[in-house]
Structures are given as structure tokens and as C-alpha cells.
Amino acid sequence: MLGLMQYEQMMISDFIVHAARHHARAEVVSRLAEGIHRQTYRDTELRARKLAQALGRLDVKPGDRVATLAWNTYRHLELYFAISGSAAVVNTVNPRLAPEDIAYILGHAEDHVLFAEVEFAPLVADVAGRLPAGVLRTVVFLCAGHAVPRVALPGGIDVMAYDALVDAEDGDYAWPRFDERSASALCYTSGTTGRPKGVLYTHRSTTLKAMAMNAADAAGLRAVDRLMPAVPMFHVNAWSLPYAATIAGTALVMPGRFLDGASLYRLIEDERVTFACGVPSVWLGVLAHVRKTGARFSTLQRMAVGGSACPESMFDAYDALGVTIMHAWGMTESSPVATVSNPIAGVDPATARRQRLSQGRALFGVDLRATRGSTEVSWDGETSGDIELRGHWIATGYYQLPSGTTPDGWFPTGDVGMFDASGFVLLTDRSKDLIKSGGEWISSIDLENIAMGHPAVAEAAVIAAKHPKWDERPLLIVALKPGASATREELLAIYEGKVARWAVPDDVVFVEELPHGATGKLLKTALRARYGDHLVRGKTAGASSAEPPPSIGAEDVDDEAPRRRPT
Ligand code: AMP
Fold first, then answer.
1. Spatial strand order in the sheet of 385-391
2. Residue 427 CA, ligand 1 centroid: distance in Å
3. How far is CA 198 from the centre of its chain?
4. Which of 197, 209, 432, 436 does the annotation list as catalytic?
5. Cα separation of 559 and 553, whole Å?
6. Do the strands 196-202 and 183-190 form a parallel or antiparallel pair, or are they unpaired?
7. Is the CB of 307 under 6 A from ligand 1?
8. What is the C-alpha separation between 127 and 69, in angstroms, rounded?
9. What's the pLDDT tens digit per position in 300-311?
10. Is the shortest distance between the CB of 444 and ligand 1 below 6 Å?
11. Do domains 11-201 and 435-556 have the same CATH topology?
12. Which fold has domain 11-201?
């Protein structure tokens, strides 16, 4: 048919090209160990282009996966655009995972090139030593040439400095155009089996998602905003915020590894942040700082909170500080934002409050349903079901694994919830038994298996116990073998070196026998009902609130080393 609209492939490189052309002077501010770093979107696009040239020199080909172990900084932003923009796939890896899991991810994704922060040098050495020969060819440290750390890597792995790599290029590079359904980013999430599984985003899914994020009732970013993503770029592409910001020309204020309440508050004030996003425990840290010091926000207006349910008290506390919280829900498999909560007109105050505290309504581009068996439950605000998703930025399954959707094309989220008549979704439960501590998943199955390795343990269950700071912490419940004995300390000690420090259970409860269902499976629901409040009720051993959080609150990974769980 003649006279139709133009057609163009949706390319992630277009975001940064647009920002460089139309919002050239908008800032990217990064908090680094050496101080505040500033550059513009125009600088960022040029450096990303040079980096794309350099990737070619490192023999990175279209479709190759390239790993990052990095904080939110301008360098990570450049990597996002250079890797995806040159048709390779950016595999953002969570540095707080156990080295064994990181090695699994790098091996599974076959990442030949790894970009890592200097402080992760010991981690990189550990991980490299666990990889089959030939997987990793090059490690690029995110620093200037003189700052490359000494690191003992297996033979054949080149070590380079990021800035030298970028500076060696002239920027004479044209962003390629290719099929918009090509993979752009790969992000691993912990599945119920405990093995991370990869979710593979495309240029098209990312573009549509980023544009949807900029709807007024979603993130609604504007060129006058200054956005602080406190959600890490190593997890679900920081909720697509780096992409949405470049489309809107919004200044980005990157906190780097400084995620404690005092540092975030300082950055918000110093850099005149208007909009900030992150998991509830990050904002609890900021709130604690503000309460302790009596400080006030002079520019912050809005916050998007998600990743775990935002507590009701937090909405009120930030309201009182003049900051409006917007609740968002999603998961790695949904890129991640699927719903956002915003008020609607014409409802009574009680309904308005319930809707505001809910996980919100679907963004245009995704659809939701809740099912019981094969029947879709009605949107009556009472009946809950298993929530399923369908849409432009919803995964079909996992990298290198068969499709995970239902026969009619819906993705089962593992979350359980209900809808009200206006389409607001309220999550009631999580069908998975994973523990979500400070925004990070901890697999209960992994922890149970380790406990079962102790000779005195007959049976072990690990549940998510409510925690005032990290939302949830693992609680180990054990039945000992008849006549056997073991102390709390002995049981907790067996986790040392087997899991990341923050994944070690907070406490141990000893029981005669664990409850079982009709098919012989552990009845975790009963355990949660009985012991879910164990850590908030006050108990014998310290609630370990001094323990560093998984991904937030602690300033960096090295910082965790000297800390010890109270025993
Ligand atoms: P992840 O894939 O690590 O981002 O985790 C996704 C899971 O976090 C979801 O399936 C939910 O169980 C949980 N989650 C995310 N956002 C919220 C929210 N706003 N309220 C309650 N749970 C949430």
C-alpha cells in the first residue's frame, strides 16, 4: 500500500544519539571514590562510540555477550550503549553474588570480555580461576591506565584499563542498524532451583519499555528532572531508567557504590535531584538519616519504589517530607516494570489509599491476568490467583532454555495477587519460596541443602522472616536427629565460604519436627505463619541488623569483609 508511515528498526544506540543531539548539555553526574565526575550526554555518546570501536578491536562480534561487574557510573552507562549499540549483548553481573554463581553466569553466557571495577580485582581473580579455560580472554578494569590493579589471573587473559581503551580511538564509527529483535542485554535472575537464569532483552523490547516508562503516569521523566537511579545497573538494567532518561534528556545522578542513607541524602541535595528510584530498604536508610539529623529535602519531589512491597509507613513518612512515592512492580522477566501505582479520580479516600499502596496498574504494552488452575479470576478485589503477564517486554523464557510461557502465551510470574475493578493489582504472596533481602534474592533451597549437610540435622527449612530493615532475612528452622546435638553457632558456621555473607541465615529455630503436606512436601506456609515474625518479635540472638545488606546500604563489597555476624 502506498503512502504508509516510515519504518525504522528500534535501536538502543538511537537513545544516546538523540540525547547527544537534542539534550547535548544535560549532565551525567557520577559519584566515584575520587570525587564527583561530570560529563554531558554529548560526551557520553562520543565516548560510547569510541568504546564501540574498541570492542571491535577486542574482537567482540555481533551477538557476543560482554560482561560487566560495575556500579552506577558514567562508565557503566557508556558500556550499556557501546555494547548494545554495536550489536553485542551487555551481560550485567551482580557483584554481590557468590563467586561460584558469578563464574556460572560468565561460563553460561560465554563472556569473553569482562569490564570490572578496580575494587573487584580479588573477586575477578577468584571467578577467573573457576572458569573453564578459554572462556575469559580480556578483563578491562574501569579506571585510568595508571590505576590498573595487580591481579593474578590464569594465563592467556589480557588485562587493560578502560580509559586507555577509549582514549585510543578516534570516534570515527557509525552506529550499525540491524534487526530490532536482536538481543541487547542479558540479566541473570535467581530461579527456584538456585541456579541463575538469563533473561534476554531485545532492542525492540527495551525501546518500547523505555518509551512506556516516560508516560506521565509511569516514571514520566522530563528534561527538567534530575534523576537518581539508586537501583543498580547490574540488576534488571536499573529498571530501564538509564534508557528512559536519555530519551527524555533527563540528567542522571549516579551514586556509584555509595548507597548508605547519608551518602544518598548528600548527593540528592548537592546535585538537586528531583526524582529518585530504588528498593524500599534504600529509602529506609535515607529516612533514618533524615530523622537522625533533622534534615529536609529541598529539591526531591518524587520517588519510585519497587522490588519489594513498599511499607505503608514509608508512604506516610515521605509524604510528610514533601516527597511522593510511586509504587512499582515487576521482575527481571518483565524488564522489569509492569505496573505503577498512581491515583485515579472519582474514588473515595479509603479506595484511593488502597490503590495507592497497591502495586498499581499495567503500563500500556503489557497485559496482566490472575488465574486459578485454568480459570481467570474476576477483578473483584477479593479473589487472588497466580499472576501472569503478556506483552512487548515480557520474556518468553530463559537464555538457552525452552519457552516458559503458557500454551496461550502468558508468562507465569510466581506472584500471587488480586485485581480491583479499576485494574489495580495487589500482591498477596509469592509462590516462590525465595527470600528477598534488601532487593536481593536468597535461595531457601540452597541454604536448606547446606544445613542438611550437618551431621546432626534431620531436616531443615529456610523461610523468609520479616526484617525491619532488609524486608526479609533468611531464618533456618531445623529438626535435629534423635539424640544428636548442635548449637546455633555451629549451624551458622557451616555457611562460611559456601554462600555470600549476607545470605547466611539470621537465626536458627530448633523444633521437634517440621510440618509436612499431603504429598510429603514441607509446609512452608505453616512455617511462615508460625515464625515469620521471629526476627521482629525480639529474640535471643541479635537480629543482625548490623549485617551489611546484599545490594544496598553498604558502601561496597570490600566493606563487608571485616564485619562479622554477632554470635
Ligand atoms: P526480581 O526479578 O529480582 O526483580 O524480583 C521480582 C520479584 O520481586 C517479583 O516477582 C515480586 O515477587 C517482587 N516484587 C517486585 N516489586 C514488588 C512490589 N512493588 N511489591 C511486592 N513485591 C515486589
1. 375-376, 366-372, 385-391, 411-419, 425-430
2. 9
3. 13
4. 436
5. 11
6. antiparallel
7. yes
8. 12
9. 999 999 988 787
10. no
11. no
12. Rossmann fold (3.40.50)
Nearest CA to ligand 1 atom 7: 331
CA 393–ligand 1 middle distance (angstroms): 16
Does ligand 1 have an atom closer than 6 angstroms to the CB of 108?
no
**Measured from the CB, is residue 398 less than 6 Å from ligand 1?**
no
Q: pLDDT (tens digit, 9 = 90+) per residue, 220-232?
A: 999 999 999 999 9
Cβ contacts of 3 within 8 Å, gap of 6 or more: none
Q: What would the mean pLDDT of 130-146 be, rounded to a whole number? A: 96
Q: DSSP of 173-205, one letter per residue?
A: -------TTSEEEEEEEE-TTSSEEEEEEEHHH
Strands 440-442 and 435-437: antiparallel
Angle of the 241-248 helix axis to the 74-85 helix axis, nearest 10: 90
| pLDDT digits 0-9 by tens, 396-446 | 999 999 988 999 999 999 888 899 999 999 987 666 677 888 888 787 777
Distance (Å) from CA 148 to ligand 1 centroid? 37
Topology (CATH) of 435-556 = GMP Synthetase; Chain A, domain 3 (3.30.300)
Question: Which residue's C-alpha comes closest to atom 1 of ligand 1?
Answer: 331
Residue 189 Cβ contacting ligand 1 at under 6 Å: yes
Cα separation, 307 vs 327, in Å, equals 9
* Helices vs strands, H then E, count in the chain: 15, 26
Domain definitions of the chain by residue range: 11-201, 435-556
User: For residue 559, what pLDDT band results from cuts at 50, 70 and 90?
Assistant: very low
- Partners of 202 in beta bridges: 183
Active site residue 189: yes
- The reply to whether ligand 1 has any atom less than 6 angstroms from the CB of 413 is yes
Q: Are 65 and 110 in contact (CB under 8 A)?
A: yes
State yes or no: is 441 an active-site residue: yes
